Structure prediction request, 642 residues.
Amino acid sequence: MRTVSQVRRTFGMPAFMGNLSQRKLASFESLGFRQASTTTAKSTQASKSKPLYAAQATLPRLPVPVLESTLNKYLISIRPHVTDAEYQATAKYVEEFKEEGSVGHVLQQRLLDRAQAMKDSSWLIEWWNNIAYFGYRDSVVINVSYFYAFEDDPKRRTQTSRAASIIKGAMQFRKMIVDETLEPESTRAGPLCMHQYKFLFNTTRIPKKPVDTSVTSDLETNTHVVVLRKGKIYTFDLAPNGQDLSTSDIEAQLKKIIEAAGSEWAEPVGALTSDDRDRWTEYRELLANDPSNARNLEIIDKAVFAVCLDDTYTVTREETSRNMWHGDGRNRWFDKSFNLIFTANGKAGILNEHSKSDGTCSTRMCDWILSNLAANKIDHGSPSTQSLPDPQALSFNLNQPLLDGIHQAERQFDKLVAAHDLQVAAFPGYGKGFIKQCGLSPDAYVQMVIQLAYYRMFGTLRPTYESAQTRNFLHGRTETCRTVTAEVQRFVEGMADVEVPVAEKAERLKTAIKRHTQNMGDAVKGEGVDRHLFGLRLLLKSSEPKPAIFTDPVYARSSHWNLSTSQLSSEFFQGYGWGEVVPDGFGFAYMIKENSLQVNVACLRTTMTDQGAKRMKYYLEESMRDMGTVCQSTIFRPKAKL
Prediction:
């Protein structure tokens, strides 16, 4: 089995489920007990001769934490954010909720019963998919989908050569999923659930009211790709008659598409996928009323993935990241499980739709493709001896209501993108190697960097979400690790106090990191705060009064994620990110490389009057320098030279 460290340990992206009023969601009643996903893919049955799903039957089920334990953790987590009076009031509500015979124990028993009834899956997964993702009604762009920007490939500088090589690598990774020969991942705690790999390829999110669905088509019989160029959509088979196209064949097909697309833009039907989910539902139904359009939608839905050949040039990290994050909205099909994106000057990246899988799986796939390309381990195959059929153009019949819908979606998209800023704090001073030689957890260290930067900018700490993967459990996805603790508060205050000696600053950093590492360990074990309370809240019947713990303003405030954070790392990535999850918040996506650190900062331009992301970038880089100086002078222990 591959260990998580071998795939650059990463946690899933953050979800936006704290304060539900901040985002447009369907009601609990329409979401909580409805199966949102359909699939025609083959089941994940274990086979002794095929390793991919071999451990599935042995995986433990996501636990229901002990009620008192969760409530105690909740009280600890809110303390830095409330006054003494607020804390006393909340503590009273918590005591009422956990008293023997209280509604808290009734809800806990209901959750235990649900877990027992769903012992072949997870008590959380259906709720989480429906409410956190499929029930989300705003555009999936910015706040749901997440991107990676790849490092340049010195061997492949042109758009088509870069695209062909990555497509070829992706198909070879996909083959390991089809054959079930992909080695499963594991941690010290045991094997990880590989269920999400079913949905990496040939998967499309389908807009529906009030809850979206998804369709995963058979991987063995659907080997065509869809390619977008100047708003036009084309398709060709990557394995005609069961024979995989070579890299040179793929590049030839891409060149044909660029030539066929010409210089004029078509009405970009893909722009509709950027719209509000309810409006997109209506327009998709209107599209499908035409038989030719319906066939085109089916081809797109069943495709292995989407490829976007942009006509834009990007140079800086920020330019490239923004292109991978959202682009111009016209040359994407945002509902595909992923879009591989290539600029006119050979920059490359990927945009991942988040509803069916988390960052661990897509990171492993991309890291595998890029590392094997760099090591010349991809089998590029031999060019076909016979001419290939030209790619097929997917032409849509568009009436006036559909044209109006496309234009409205374009306007909404442009407005959404213009409202956001993105900055990249790329720090080459040190990375994972230095942090480990200080005896510290690299992930927890960067969490402290983010907290210190935020404190320096705003003079306070606010609720912070770090995503923790729970794939040690069957059908596990993520849990919240609440970063802000009393120890973190003491650390940032000490860094701001010139009277605190450097050695004391270092000790406070170590203590804060130790606490965060413990909290993350609990979250990974399914023993965090947020998913448990989420489940209890959903089991409250509509006729029952809401317990005070859930109507308490502190509850909503403590899960209003001003800082939404997550880490993944690959030496082959130069960018990674997503948007803020509350209007007054930041999205912090960070990478910890061997000799460098990088944090992507995204927020609305209204933050600090259009200076929020720029200033946060400055404070992040300053905090990295200052914390490095503290560690260098106190706890750094260089490796002995042999």
The longest helix spans residues 502-524. DSSP finds 20 helices and 19 strands in the chain.
